[in-house]
Design goal:
By secondary structure, the protein is mainly α. 38% of the residues lie in helices and 6% in strands.
Length: 90
């Protein structure tokens, strides 16, 4: 695979950026995510997570089944206090 290939389309992260992050010490999907933002876009890693895992496996020699997927978190949106308290916010 060419190093100029975009792995994370949402954040436009290339294979080379991921390889550089791994060589900088990232050995998990979350580690790569923290360094280059792969998996932080609109799809939340649904498109690129397996590819990132594959690149980690290739670069480190760790079997893919031993690489943990990224931690999933719910998107945060502001909520009016009246919704939580059960009152209408007019």
């Amino acid at each position: 695979m060419d190093n100029d290939v975009i792995i994370c389309r949402c954040q436009e992260v290339t294979r080379q950026e991921i390889v550089d992050a791994i060589r900088d010490g990232a050995t998990t999907v979350d580690g790569v995510k923290r360094r280059v933002r792969a998996g932080m876009g609109l799809c939340q890693g649904k498109t690129c997570e397996r590819l990132v895992m594959k690149i980690i496996a290739e670069e480190t020699g760790i079997p893919m089944e031993e690489i943990l997927p990224q931690k999933k978190r719910m998107p945060v949106r502001p909520v009016k206090i009246g919704v939580i308290g059960g009152q209408t916010d007019e």
